[in-house]
Amino acid sequence: MKTRQNIAGFLLRIALAAGFLSAVASRLGFWGAQSSGWKNFISYSAEVNSFFPSSWAPALAVISTTAELIIGIFLLTGYQVRKTALAASVLTLLFGIAMSISFGCKEALDYSVFVFSAGAFLLSTSPAI
């Protein structure tokens, strides 16, 4: 049983890291033609955070990208997994709430943002890591 928990925790940690790092890579153009690009991400940040002034979008884009990059690297390397997973859970929960406020809950549910957040929270409580 313990071995399966260890494997599940490891796989969840890697999947969460991959999700964060893939999003960052897309914004920075590392996915080539499939990349969203930085300008598009700033526009999306303004849409998601429609309750903030649009002038805040560039700062929010930098802050969220930096947080996602750090969280992704920490999860990938296994550094402070419980604390990092908790940070990942809070960040994605805030993102899901912002999406729900700005677009309605359907988009956050369609993109499994709350599942991602719950998975990160579960990882933060796991004794098997």
How would you characterize the overall build of this protein?
With about 130 residues, the chain is mostly helical. It has six helices and no strands. The longest helix has 26 residues, at about 1-25. The chain is globular and about 50 Å long. It starts with a helix and ends with a helix.
Query: Termini distance?
Result: 14 Å
Largest sheet: none
What class would the helix/strand composition place it in? Answer: mainly alpha
User: How confident overall, as mean pLDDT?
Assistant: 95
Number of β-strand runs? 0
Q: Could you give a short description of this structure?
A:
This protein is mostly helical and about 130 residues long. The chain has helices spanning about 1-25, 40-50, 55-75, 80-105, 105-110, 115-125.
